Amino acid sequence: MEPSEADWVSRLADEVIAEAERRVPRGPIICASGLSPSGPIHLGNLREVMTPHLVADEVRRRGRDCEHLLFWDDYDRFRRVPADVDPSWAEHVGKPLTSVPAPAGSRYPNWAEHFKAPMVMALAELAIEVQEISQAQRYASGAYREDILLAMRERERIDAILGRYRMQAKPTADDSPPAADVAGTADVAAALAAAQGSGAATEEDGANAAGYFPYKPYCSVCDRDLTTVVGYDDDTTALSYVCACGHADTVLLSEHDQGKLVWKVDWPMRWAHYGVLFEPSGVDHSSPGSSFVVGSQIVREVFGQDPPIGPMYAFVGISGMAKMSSSRGAVPTPADALEIMEAPLLRWLYARRRPNQSFKIAFDQEIHRLYDEWDALGRRIAGGSAAPAEVAAHGRATRTAARVLPTTPRPLPYRTLASIIDVTTGDDEQILRVLHDLAPDDPITSLNEVRPRLDRARAWVDAQMPIDQRTRVRDEPDLELLASLGAADREMLRLLLAGLDPNWSLDGLTGLVYSVPKIHAGLPLDMKPTPELKVAQRAFFALLYRLLIGRDTGPRLPTLLLAVGADRVRTLVGADRRDRAPAVC
Fold first, then answer.
1. Which of 302, 333, 400 is nearest to 56 (CA)?
2. Do domains 1-141+314-405 and 479-573 have the same CATH topology?
3. How is the chain split into domains, by residue range?
4. CA angle 463, 464, 469 (to 5 degrees)
5. What is the C-alpha separation between 186 and 195, in angstroms, rounded?
6. Does domain 479-573 have CATH number 2.40.33?
7. Count of CA atoms in the C-beta half-sphere (13 A) of 205
8. Which CATH superfamily is domain 1-141+314-405 in?
9. pLDDT digit string (tens) for 311-342?
10. Counting C-beta atoms within 10 Å of the first and last residue's C-beta, which end of the chain has fewer, N or C?
11. Do the beta carbons of residue 161 and residue 296 sit within 8 Å?
């Protein structure tokens, strides 16, 4: 059966398997992702991993051997000091990320490991299985030595490929730093500042006044990449460089392991080295002259292999925030999202959208709507009315080829749990009391029945719910407001109180609060609301909110009543308990 166009995972898996039959009919299929631990690894970066994960998992479901490699670009340079880090870290700009101390207070040995760790834990919770590859370890071990030597022999060919896309003319001798500066008499601080401000185009290119060299050594004295290659001998592999710190050296590249290929050559090199068949790329890597476009030509013409296939993926946003950038800091990470979302829901947000579709992840009150959509999908699937693509996306969110992800046994609406936690100020005993009363015919008797969703909702209330929207139940009745009420309002309050006991459940109270204005107006309980009735209901709700919490709006009224408790409701509403109206059914 042909996969639905909406089921993008199946379609890409078909393409991957077909391409594998052409390239590696008997070997494992290699999918890949790449992440730089230069800062917080945010939810946009997660798409770099989630896209090949879903495709690789579908390939495995079909019985094919498939590996998902995650390249950690931990041998990249430390580019800049984030605003929230001690400015003294500027002395490490230009060093490999693995040589930079972790931020103050971290328990990890270096900058790279500090930012890797939360992502690794998030991937485990999301059931994303990868084979991690540290580029720092691979370069240091000499694993890429032959690839580096090949790139250096073919540097003129690489330079010509890059030249097809350079937007500016190649620098001339007049454009280059003076020889004395290159030799090391320039101010090192100025060199550091220039390095911090340089763009990816110059750093990833490898050209300088002495020629084109795709390999950039880290200085053996200062450990920075403020180096310029000034000569290379193909026969002996002798490479000479000078550094802005004043050091000059000549090393044998056949033995040297303290440096790396520039990015636009490093990426195609590892495609060839590992036989990568599928790897997506961000929209910023898909424009003319970008790393993916140039790399595709380099891997063919220099390394003799085909580039990977894979889609361009669009950006992921956050409700109320601009496009995420880890260099700006303070961007939500997968670990942050998993504090307030169950893992299947987060997986679903990526699985249901084609890679070229941008989408937003809600940290504000929109998360309630997302959970409502998720729960509604589950009901449609159980009832057999969901579309095939919806069923496929839900299945990929809740299980992988290897295991089923944990889910909440009693998945109550997220907004209901958040309201209960808010009103009870997170007290477990009170939360359980309210949960027990939600459905008296099938009561919840343990908080474990609503975990982990309860814990996610608690985290959202604690960290994301706006302070001005928190609910504080009144300690004493608002006597002034009660004294000002007319006969109609007093009657409706008596009707409400009379119906509390026989309707003490979420469904019962929902029916009660909507029926009181109908009864007061002499209307049938099953009457569809008219515009006039809706106005009366809203006015009644606002009155109850003012009496209970001192505001015109608040959590869903039935949930609020359950959380406050019948006795306290009677106290705050202020009706004479000896003066009961007939019970409302």
1. 400
2. no
3. 1-141+314-405, 167-261, 414-469, 479-573
4. 115
5. 13
6. no
7. 24
8. HUPs (3.40.50.620)
9. 999 989 998 554 555 444 568 999 999 999 99
10. N
11. no
